[in-house]
Design a protein that fits this description.
The complex is a heterodimer of chains A (431) and B (30). Chain A is an all-alpha fold and 431 residues long. Chain A has one domain. In chain A, 78% of the residues lie in helices and 0% in strands. In chain A, helix 6 runs antiparallel to helix 7, helix 7 packs parallel to helix 10 and helix 9 runs antiparallel to helix 13. Chain B has 30 residues and is mainly α. In chain B, 83% of the residues lie in helices and 0% in strands. The radius of gyration of chain B is 12 Å and the shape is rod-shaped. Classes of the chains: A mainly alpha (431), B mainly alpha (30). The interface between A and B is medium-sized, with 35 and 20 residues.
């Protein structure tokens, strides 16, 4: 009988794996919740403008909660120690923005039912890069590898089944099928490759709060450029932006949820790697379904068989998540991760001991950087002020919502936020 | 620093993928 690699059962190692799994699940809840406010936006706006509105919300939200957690002095010092990651973070933001735009074209040309399964391949692309470039799943043993691969596949298949069953749109019978398929595959490739900068960053010990700061800049600049270009120039762009004013609050709110979800996703990538973390955060499809079906009644009137397919897809996703949550990296695989860390340290001249401390949940930088600058409070207040100003001008959209389910889902999502933030703080002080 | 990044093979993988994405936008995004 083949000997299975030994799983490190030390409390520290075990709690980091559990922490990463909890972060992945919290990411799914908040990325799924980000879809809810955007459903309140009246149709008729350009998809680029909707994406840009949300990305602008992400940018503004970045300067509220996350800055309150660590402060900008800490973030700037973190980036100063690893300046190469500034370029990597901008690259990741650009990849996200281009991928998001490609999905718009994919839906237009082949419909969501064809496009969704294709771009959903992103978790397998991420898994491949994790294995090839960062030694993930190497020396992990057959059982652990089967749990991660099987779990990832189950989540992808479950999400695809739900996506197909809940799609309101038939496949478009346009003459642009090849273009749509290429765009959807391109989006999957770009999103899957976006996890390369993520993992690169966390093997270098950067704090996710620092990385996301620069990531949102790359995202906003790329998305803004694409929106101006595809709207036909600055003038039509500004006209459309003015027309969107009453809907902007909902998009910003979606952006705020997205930032929280993305931060948890980054912590998951840091503590359990992209092969395990990304499929877990891709469970956001399940939360999006819960919001759509329970709050907005999107499945009302559908046949029982149809609803059974949705329930079946959800169960498959849950089984996949359970498999991954039980696939802790054994000591032999952790040694492979360590080799990847050493390679990064050698290349970019970083202190191996300091990086290893950060990777294992300690925060050496926090001991040297405490306190806040006065202007941080001003920036914080300005960001909150923008959100409040937008809320004042927001128009309540005439969409029926189930208030009981809304309250329950908000409570569940907040429970994930509070619970996960508490364990993150307790174990790592948000490192 | 830029020299170190340019010498990192990993860096060129997302760059190449981003270029493919932009090309797809230009070709099919009409």
């Amino acid at each position: 009988m083949a000997t299975q690699p030994r799983v490190d059962r030390s409390p520290g190692s075990r709690s980091l794996h559990s922490l990463g799994v909890v972060c992945g699940l919290a990411a799914a809840a908040w990325l799924g919740a980000a879809e809810a406010p955007t459903k309140l936006v009246t149709l008729g706006f350009s998809p680029f403008m909707i994406s840009l509105g949300m990305v602008a919300g992400v940018f503004v939200a970045r300067w509220t909660v996350p800055m309150a957690l660590k402060g900008s002095r800490y973030v700037f010092q973190d980036l100063k120690e690893k300046p190469h990651l500034i370029i990597w973070a901008i690259l990741a933001g650009a990849l996200w923005a281009v991928a998001n735009t490609l999905t718009v074209f994919a839906i237009r040309d082949v419909g969501l039912s064809v496009a969704f399964p294709l771009w959903n391949l992103n978790s397998l692309v991420g898994l491949f890069w994790g294995w090839l470039l960062f030694n993930e799943l190497r020396d992990a043993g057959g059982a652990q590898r089967a749990k991660v691969l099987g779990g990832g596949l189950a989540i992808m298949i479950g999400a695809t089944v739900i996506g197909l069953a809940t799609s309101q749109q038939d496949s478009a019978a346009s003459g642009r099928a090849a273009a749509g398929i290429a765009a959807a595959l391109g989006a999957g490739l770009l999103w899957g490759t976006m996890y390369v900068p993520y993992r690169k960053a966390y093997l270098s010990g950067i704090n996710p709060l620092s990385f996301v700061t620069i990531f949102t800049v790359g995202e906003l600049v790329t998305m803004g450029t694409l929106a101006v270009l595809f709207q036909g120039g600055p003038e039509p762009f500004l006209r459309e932006l003015g027309r969107m004013r009453p809907a902007l609050f909902w998009l910003f709110l979606g952006g705020l949820c997205w930032v929280i979800g993305d931060l948890f996703q980054q912590f998951a990538a840091k503590y359990i790697g992209i092969a395990r973390g990304i499929p877990l955060s891709n469970m956001n499809q399940l939360w999006g379904l819960a919001w759509g079906a329970l709050v907005f009644g999107e499945l009302a009137g559908k046949a029982a068989g149809h609803q059974a397919i949705v329930v079946g897809g959800s169960l498959v996703m849950i089984v996949g998540a359970l498999a991954i949550s039980r696939a802790e990296a054994p000591a032999s695989e952790k040694e492979c991760w360590r080799r990847a860390i050493r390679r990064e340290c050698d290349r970019y001249g970083m202190d191996m001991a300091r990086v290893e401390a950060a990777v294992s949940g300690e925060d050496p930088l926090a001991r040297e950087n405490s306190g806040r600058a006065w202007w941080e409070f001003a920036v914080f207040l300005a960001a909150v002020g923008i959100l409040a100003w937008l809320a004042r001008g927001a128009e309540r959209q005439a969409i029926a919502m189930n208030s009981g389910w809304t309250a329950l889902l908000i409570a569940a999502t907040l429970a994930f936020l509070i619970g996960c933030a508490w364990v993150l703080w307790k174990r790592t002080r948000f490192s | 620093m830029l020299k170190k990044i340019a010498g990192d093979l990993h860096f060129w993988i997302p760059c190449a993928v981003l270029i493919v994405g932009i090309a797809l936008l230009i070709v099919f995004g009409e």
